[in-house]
Amino acid sequence: MTTLRLTAAAALLLACFAVPASADAPSGQHKEKVLHMFLSTSETGLDPAVASDLASLSLLENLFDPLLRYDYLARPVKLAANTVTELPRIEDGGKTYTFRLRPGIYFSDDPAFKGKKREVTAADYVYSLKRLYDPALKSPWAYMFEGKLLGDAALKDKFSYDTQIPGLQAVDKYTLRIRLAEPDNNFLYYLAIPASGVVAREVVEAYPGQAGNHPVGTGPFMIGDWKRSDRIVLLANPNSSAVFHATPGADPVDKQIDAALEGQRLPRVDRVEVKIAEEFQGRMLGFLNGEYDYIEQVPESMTDMVIKDGKLKPELAKRGMQLYRFPVLQTYYMWMNMENPLIGGYGKDKVALRRAISMAYNNAEDIALLKKGMATKADSPLPQDAIGYDPNYRSPVPYDPALANALLDKFGYDQRDPDGFRRAPNGQPLTLTMHSEATVGGRLRDELWRKCLNSIGLRVVFKSDKKTEIIKASRLGKVMMFESNWVADFPDGDNFYQLLYGPNAGRANYARFNLPAYNERYEKARALPDGPERKKLYFEMNQLIHAYNPWVPLTHVLSADIRQPWLKNYKRHPVEFTNWRYLDVDVAERERTTHSE
């Protein structure tokens, strides 16, 4: 899911929570404030333990509360207290974390609570984190905790929510103690992701197997109307206890936001109306017509509609719109299934096939024509600003179709069909199947790949589907090739290199790459802080990726973001997916602007 940033220093600020802005307005004087948003893909479900797609995560972080969040304004990024009174007390050489919950945090109302207000306790966080181990859920986030919490083998051996482990204890109603088997430099980041959000056991048990259809959290918003894969309405949560505190930098915009929000109750709007807008053109036209309050990552094919000579077009600037450029902590890559009988495997012939595919990819054409210059070449999994990024690393695999052709000839792919396409070394027809999104953008990318692969004599067919369906099939190992992108869950290189870690196959490791030499280095690097020793391991892991080619690294995005003039407090965060809780709307300005157009 997108881009990440800096410093693992955990200096935090307190985010106490309260009621929505509308509660401050006298009856009859308040004009409802509505944010109009879109998501580019459909949500899969709203269970924090299960969902991992960008759309669902964007919603989850507004509905559920992890222990920690990120400071909205601090750069480099730093963590902040969320449902706890302060950052945890860390003892035992980084293996013991003690959190003190803020009293008075309540779940949104649900029939499962039988008419009573339900306060959050430390036991709720114990239950919520245990859900990541539940084998029935197959949580894609389990890898962050498995083998790390002290005694958690008991949850793996015979899972039960009633099994007590020393690594996860509710000391009293408001005190949570987490113990690790070994120190983990990124552990606090794990406690700020949507998957760590607190849920109530009564709710989960009231809707067996359907928790993702009944999201009941403590976040600043709660679910309102929900028409799957079409429209979602979030309502300001009257039980929210959030109050804004942040650490502004020297940027005048930061200071302005801080002055507007400091000490204010969150959220600042009454509702968020979210539409699913999968087609690029629909998103862009909707924004230009005032249907959406901002657009992030202007689609590459739509750039010429809004940007000229690197600036917002004058007619849009006159309407009060503002353009922001944002280096996203996001990596685009095309992965190949290492268990697929046609393209997978570690033998020389299969390595040669994947290497040739990588060498056929025309990165310059992709960036210039499809991304409209709003991207940089990906030489490794890490984007700029991720902790551990090496600005001097360059991929040893060049764009070189001639060399790719020679490589295929050498390793047995020299036989051709009558139509000129290569056969497999055993003489059988060779047809690659690449999944793609059923969108205009997906079709444009299909044509780029068709051109690249045909240039080295490889036949490819494309199977279009919704991205959510492709992800489901990918986790089951049923997809041969697909372009994905990863948006950072936390600002450290570990979050990207785990995408190729063998034990994560069936989760985020869609390529199902499982190389002992890579796994060993990843495990060593995971235990180290950022520094020369870890960077050396990252270099070696990059070399192994380029040696076996489970991926074709594609691009890192430079996002063009535009906001409407009536939207207040907008600042894109490097790690969090949305900033909806902080945003405000000048209703009068919206009415003036839209009526004058």
UniProtKB/TrEMBL annotation:
Coiled-coil segments on the chain, per record: none
Pfam families: SBP_bac_5
Localization (cell): Cell envelope
Family matches, as InterPro entries: Peptide/Ni-bd, SBP_5, SBP_5_dom
Annotated Solute-binding protein family domain residues: 86-505
Presence of keyword Transport: yes
Keywords carried by this UniProt record: Signal, Transport
Domain of life: Bacteria
SUPFAM superfamilies: Periplasmic binding protein-like II
Major subcellular site: other
First and last residue of the signal peptide: 1-23
PANTHER family: PERIPLASMIC BINDING COMPONENT OF ABC TRANSPORTER, PERIPLASMIC OLIGOPEPTIDE-BINDING PROTEIN-RELATED
Family under the similarity heading: Belongs to the bacterial solute-binding protein 5 family.
Protein name according to UniProt: ABC transporter substrate-binding protein
